[in-house]
Amino acid sequence: MFQKSEFGSAHGGASASLWLSGAIASPGPLTETREWRTRLRDWAEDVDLVPDLGQRVGSLTWFRGLATCTALCAGAIALSPGFDPIPGAPEPMMDARQFDEVRSQMITPLAMGADSGRHMGATDAVSNLRETPERPQIELTAQIGSGDSFARALSRAGVSSSDAGRVIGLTGLDMRDAALRPGTRLDIVLGRRTSRAMPRPLESLSFRARLDLAIDIRRVNGALVAQRIPIRVDDTPLRIRGTVGDSIYRSARAAGAPPKAIQAFLRTLSQQIAIGAVGAGDRYDMIVAHRRAETGEAEVGDLLYAGLDRARGKDIDLLKWTSGGRSEWFEASGVGERRGVLSQPVSGRLSSGFGMRRHPILGFTRMHAGIDFAAHYGSPIYAVTDGIVEYAGRHGGHGNYVKLRHGGGIATGYAHMSRIASVPGQRVRRGQVIGYVGSSGLSTGPHLHYELYRNGHAVNPASVSFTTTAQLAGRDLAAFRARLAALKAIPAGVQTAQGGGSARGK
């Protein structure tokens, strides 16, 4: 073995040195062979047959390497097997019996009879039926979807228009007003039809019209007869109490409060204090309308009472009360909401104020006729006070835009929405969702651009404050206090450890 170094060729070890010395000393043909091998070795060391073709281009060594590369490529091409296809024997054609057996083992839905598994194919002794036997009855379950109607659900299930009209007449429900809630289950049985050209007659129909009413319709002596089955329902409100831990939402959920009730509770509290001011150790108290049927079904209604016993700060004691045809939240003293006070339209931070500024997209200074609230994409946008939707749609650089008219020459605008949740002419209440935060129009990111108009001119939203306070008195105040005392008398059980709570009806 030989090694090549900076100082020339050197023997790779003692054994190689001894072998060479022996070859030189040995006489005869063996000596000549070894001498030839030595000369060949020395020549191979001096002549580099595979030099780097990227160096010394054009030299004798480079052309020698090019010749070596060309010879290797030519040898590889000469020894290649070629690209002609290799012929192979085709599979023999299957006869009818083999094809039928293979077809019977295939999984072919809706094709070739949809056979699955190993079955015996039909023989000449099998003849086609003139007509298939009719099922005596069909039992199925349908469901009323969102935006669906009772009549369409029956028609979709195969009930004839005459039977559907008779059912609607028997139930006494105006299905055009969506008397049945989406998701209502319809248990239907269709009977044998007299001919294939006629629809199957309705034999029975059972469904839950309301929480307290089930309707069972059956065909008796050829005529449909309806039976109303009343169901007893407990209307006692549900009270949930507990102690706030890391989060009031998580604490209330741990106590069994429905998410919808918690959202209404937080929305109500936000009209009095900032939600971030609610700390660990505060005690929450909420009462929601609750109906439970004797069959086990339950419905959770609106929030009726919201209370918060704070470790630091003023306690909150609010009851929803209807006065003068208007439902609003009143404090325990009988003082209602401060109507007209502009609340914050979205849960976020103020990112840009009112006045002249350099536009982040257009690049020049112009009037910023509103204030911006940075918020997460898709966050709900609320009406700051009661009003009527004057405009809802695309509005130039505002993108998706909603404008509310509040009376007295006051109007508000909400821009860059991702989705609009209101329509022109709609009457909205304070805190009602009218859209969701987005980045439509001339916007660099998700935020709400909020504007305030007075007599058609944009003004600084922070400069407007107007207040009218509702106050109960006389019989209304007495009835209000009686209702508040009755609700607060509903027990909620023994409270659990911090971060949880308990929920129980009366």
CATH fold-type name of the largest domain: Nuclear Transport Factor 2, Chain: A
CATH level 1 class label of the largest domain? Alpha Beta
Query: What is the number of independent domains?
Result: 4
Extended strand count:
28
Spans of at least 5 consecutive residues whose pLDDT stays below 50 are 1-26, 174-178, 493-506
What coarse outline follows from CA principal-axis ratios? flat
Mean pLDDT over the full residue set: 78
Kindly report the oligomeric state of this protein. Answer: single chain
Round the Cα radius of gyration to an integer and report it: 44 Å
Distance between the termini: 100 Å
Work out the helicity level. Answer: 10-25%
* Helix/strand/pairing category: alpha+beta
Which percent range describes the beta-strand content?
A: 25-35%
- Count of individual helical segments: 9
Major sheet, described briefly?
Answer: 10 strands, antiparallel
What would you say the CATH architecture of the largest domain is? Answer: Roll
Question: What features would you describe in this structure?
Answer:
- The protein is built from nine helices and 28 strands.
- The chain is 22% helix and 33% strand.
- The protein has four domains: 2-64, no CATH class; 138-230, Nuclear Transport Factor 2, Chain: A (Roll); 238-340 and 490-505, Roll (Nuclear Transport Factor 2, Chain: A); 349-466, Glucose Permease (Domain IIA), CATH 2.70.70.10.
- The protein has 506 residues and is an alpha+beta fold.
- Strands 15, 18, 19, 20, 21, 22, 23, 24, 25 and 26 form a ten-stranded antiparallel sheet that branches.
- The model is unreliable at 1-26, 174-178 and 493-506 (pLDDT under 50).
